[in-house]
Amino acid sequence: MRTRIPTMLILCLSFLCWIEPLFAQTSLPKPDHIVIVIEENHSFAQIIDSPAAPYLNALAKKGALLTNSHGVTHPSQPNYIALFAGFIEGVNGNTCPLALTTPNLHSTLAQVGQTFVGYAEDLPAVGATDCVAGAYARKHSPWVNWQSSPINTVPPADNRPFSEFPTDFRTLPTVSMVVPNQQNDLHNGKDPERIELGDQWLRTHLDSYVQWADTHNSLLIVTWDEDNGKSDNHIPTILVGPMVRQGRFGEQVDHYGLLRTIEEMYGAKPVGLSRQASPLTTIWTAPSPTR
């Protein structure tokens, strides 16, 4: 005797099959390496389509340009700390030195067997804690503020001058933050000269990594700490790598969301306000292969 399935049950099952993809979790890629370059104090409109920034605009066309990306506050230092540790509470300015203890990108990656190193141009020596040294400014190197912490420590060996950025990219840590000095990060001088200088610095020092990353499952992220203080903190954010779709994407993101994206890629526990943020989901070409 054949069992008849009620028509209503068939309709319900069909409906569930139809809506299931709408609720499916989007898989994030797992890059072998991520290099994050942080630039200074320019709005989206000042950089994108600017003739003073040909290399940055070439990157934007090669990868994903986020058109709805924002800094979280002013001035500079709290934004760097937001991207590194997901919080700005109590950090209202460019105070130096700071001593911080909260969980951060270094500590949460370490818990899942991944690594982090910060590279700052003109840092006087490995592990240096100077507030200012020539064109180097500690306010732009957030990881240094955890170097003396009894918990969630960033070891001095993971605070390095940019001169130690590897030429053999296979030896890079999982995640690197690269901070040009204040002459090369678009901070000092007048536009368009300082934009041109920073744009050329990026081409000179990172283009070889971009070319290598394209065939080695690796990712470059270029973002800004804040805008020029004259808009709604609307900043450019550019991602380039083989796992990234080409185009302009309106998915909203700030420093907390960018941090959450990186944490999710490696299965790391979200820290600070990144716990409340959503990772980027619309810009990826395909899920990461099973490892």
Strand coverage percent:
15-25%
- What would CATH call the architecture? 3-Layer(aba) Sandwich
Here the CATH topology equals Alkaline Phosphatase, subunit A
Total helices: the number is 7
Low-pLDDT segments: 7-25
Instruction: Identify the quaternary structure here.
Output: single chain
Number of domains: 1
| End-to-end separation | 48 Å
Summarize the structure.
It contains 7 helices and 11 strands. With 291 residues, the protein is of the alpha/beta class. The strands form 2 sheets. Strands 1, 2, 3, 6, 7, 8, 9, 10 and 11 form a 9-stranded mixed sheet that branches. Strands 4-5 form a two-stranded antiparallel sheet.
Notable characteristics:
291 residues; alpha/beta; Alkaline Phosphatase, subunit A; 9-stranded mixed β-sheet; two-stranded antiparallel ribbon; 7 helices
Describe this structure in words.
By secondary structure, the protein is of the alpha/beta class. Helices cover 27% and strands 17% of the residues. It has a single domain (31-276), classed as 3-Layer(aba) Sandwich (Alkaline Phosphatase, subunit A). Strands 1, 2, 3, 6, 7, 8, 9, 10 and 11 form a nine-stranded mixed beta sheet that branches. It is globular, with a radius of gyration of 21 Å. The N and C termini lie far apart (48 Å).
Question: Mind sketching the topology for me?
Answer:
Layout: H1 7-23, E1 33-39, H2 44-47, H3 54-62, E2 64-70, H4 76-85, H5 105-110, E3 116-120, E4 132-133, E5 136-137, E6 159-161, E7 175-179, H6 193-213, E8 218-224, E9 234-240, E10 247-249, E11 253-254, H7 255-265
Parallel strand pairs: 1-7, 1-8, 2-10, 2-11, 3-6, 3-7
Antiparallel strand pairs: 2-9, 4-5, 8-9
